[in-house]
Amino acid sequence: xxxxxxxxxxxxxxxxxxxxxxxxxxxxxxxxxxxxxxxxxxxxxxxxxxxxxxxxxxxxxxxxxxxxxxxxxxxxxxxxxxxxxxxxxxxxxxxxxxxxxxxxxxxxxxxxxxxxxxxxxxxxxxxxxxxxxxxxxxxxxxxxxxxxxxxxxxxxxxxxxxxxxxxxxxxxxxxxxxxxxxxxxxxxxxxxxxxxxxxxxxxxxxxxxxxxxxxxxxxxxxxxxxxxxxxxxxxxxxxxxxxxxxxxxxxxxxxxxxxxxxxxxxxxxxxxxxxxxxxxxxxxxxxxxxxxxxxxxxxxxxxxxxxxxxxxxxxxxxxxxxxxxxxxxxxxxxxxxxxxxxxxxxxxxxxxxxxxxxxxxxxxxxxxxxxxxxxxxxxxxxxxxxxxxxxxxxxxxxxxxxxxxxxxxxxxxxxxxxxxxxxxxxxxxxxxxxxxxx
Length: 438
Fold this sequence. Notes:
The protein has 438 residues and is an all-alpha fold. It has 19 helices and no strands. The chain has helices spanning 7-39, 46-77, 80-98, 104-107, 110-140, 146-174, 177-184, 186-190, 192-203, 210-217, 225-232, 234-243, 246-264, 270-298, 300-322, 327-354, 361-391, 394-412, 417-420. α3 (80-98) runs antiparallel to α5 and α12 runs antiparallel to α18. The longest helix has 33 residues, at 7-39.
């Protein structure tokens, strides 16, 4: 008789799969900052090539809601596990193919076109990842540990970023810049093929959640989950999408935009910026787990408001420190923003999943997270880069980041605490999931 995996093992499986997905997604971002403007957009000026490469990077975020809709529909009808496997395969195949893609010098305009197409496929894959991983972890967790277990897919984000940064850092140490630009940049993409196999083995061991099984046994499976979630929970969709702006904004800002900013504006070496972000990933992981536990204890809504408010304010002194170009101050400034981002991401998965009933939860949580990612991870970096190009000051970038974080903070304030803190130890713990339908 097969032993059913416990919540800790499920959380670990969600974490490992998330690491692989975000490794794939982030190596594209790093290649955008370091390579793609020259290899795929050489006819532009330096600033134009950077903007074109960032636009191609943003396409992946635009495609993520499509992946969320597809995975959400089948995840709510067929099950969470099947869609987690499908998202991993989609992402991995697209990433590996990018590593085999000819450059502009070889096939001309078809190179950037194919790059954008594969980035779209990447976006579809990762769009289905977060909702399924978060649901598997949260729905398997004890009620008073949902934020903690929900943080495991979240820490897969900095972990995946860490692995991808180490990969590129290794390349910068082993190969010359000319070799890196010529062909060595392909190696991290090709390595994704190995990671696909690892991820599939890990995810084969997980089982469906009891909440989904109960919904299936009760025949509470929506025929069209997308229609049902808009009909039953429109306010939750709106608020959940807005509160999802801050996390992707800060994640992309720290791991991609600041690498480009440090190398192009501060004239620090790419190796220095990669080392800074690599070292930052370690406290990022630890702080996110701590934030998840704190969210279970003190309330997910309260911790989210603290994190987003801190981020909106801290971005200004962060740039004051970063603009000195002194490595210790650059690290300290980015660590400050990392702490704020950790508080936000520690609370978010449990909040979003608990806002929706089980029958449409995959669709609802995925849509919110991925719509937020379009703005936070795709559009905001473009706006930030354009603002800097127009005004020539980091203050303009700080204002953009601060406003986005304030929007997320204000979005969560009107939402009743009982909807966001279901299962957390609280004297107000009297509301069940049915309230999320009101």
